[in-house]
Fold:
Amino acid sequence: MELTRKGASPAIVVIFGATGDLTTRKLLPALYNLAYDGELPSQFACVGFARREKDQKQFRDEMKEGLDKFSRHKPVDPDLWSHFSEKLYYHQSEFDDDKGYESLKAFLKELDVMYGTHGNRIFYLSVQPKYFPLIVEKLKKHGLLYDAVEEKKHFSRIIIEKPFGHNLKTALALQNELSAYVDEPEIYRIDHYLGKETVQNILTFRFLNPVFEHLWSNQAIESMEITVAEEMGIGTRGNLWEEQGLLRDIVQNHMMQLLTLALMEAPPHFTADNIKNEKVKVLKAVRKFNGAEVDQYAVRGQYDGGIISEKEVMGYRQENNVSPTSKVETFAALKLFVDNERWKGVPIYLRSGKRLTRRCSEIAVTFKPSFPTNNAPNVLVIHVQPNEGISLNFQSKVPSLQETQTVRMDFRYDSTFGVTPKEAYERLILDCLSGDSTLFLRDDEVLASWEIMTPILEWWEKNEPSNFPNYLSGSNGPDEVENLLEAGHQWRRI
Ligand code: BG6
Structure:
């Protein structure tokens, strides 16, 4: 299995929507931290493209404020900042204004001369999804995207934030619109979960450790439980959330990625396309729900007020820009089956929600007992976050007693490696600068995931819930999740 990475190429990163939250919280800190770690090429510049009026200095000052709060390396190094901020520019324009793209083109050429970036471009679309096709069309129209011949000399790559579509139909339409202007290899669809060290480690853990891989099937595994729980509510995203809901925000993307990595077959070679081929095969093998079956295999919820970390928090319907009678879900749990030889009959439980008792993302694998027993089963847990690591529960005899007890073998990133892993966005931007798309999503992966989610969404839309809000903030979610479980299984405590 190849773990080496190519070096990052010189390039200019243009961030569309640069005045948004993501730029301040994640993108700029990622670029700065890469510079701090010496991984950003010195031939580099970054241009923020957005609609608001502001000058260069204002933009740089705002980015500095963001770094002070959100950078992994703190405090911000004044020398590095002074050097880094000189390469940071602001370009004001509406997204549909041709003149804005013409002046951008001229400006990027100037920057190429100043910084030796060879015409290489990354366009990061951190904007509302409705602007994706418009921006890409304008970039193409103004010669900012290269054709296949030019791509051999320099590159123009597009990074697209989620959500990629609202359901299967709109995702397909978006894909068709984009592919009129950009070739698939130049599209980098981000799912930041893939940038997390613990998520990247899933394949290494599975395929380089035969002791586990030999047991990795329905022969030895009874069930799998994937959890993405958050203490946070929806914050200031009321408008967006009302259109989206939890299934689209977390399950369609982050959780499906965890699922495919946990269940895929080993590819013939560990290349980007081979890995994606195997991931798509898993998604295609997930059993799809038909109409009312959804009620048997899926549970949704919405948070009420409650107490989290000793603080009182409001219910979803009281949040800003949320309807007081909203039917939108902030929690979802599913029981899926993957109908292939390896996973036939193994329930895969997924559970995710806002305002749960604590933040926790993990994959828990429960093994079958070798004979009927009342002892707790072996459970292997990949702790995605926090307390990143892997643990295995097993039975041990209690010294001097004729009793057994569940004990735990534990691997923790912090104590073993003594370093804070890179932030997901650092890894992903670096990979895009290197032209490595392994950790980005291919069109068929996204569509295959929508094929699973769309029947659920459609059924939920047609059949509004009558019991919302149905869980307290600070709890483990709605009680109905118990109905999903096969006999003998219990949800893990979050
Ligand atoms: C984002 C979702 O994609 O992921 C957010 O839009 C969610 O609602 C976030 O809070 C969770 O990411 P992480 O890395 O904190 O688990």
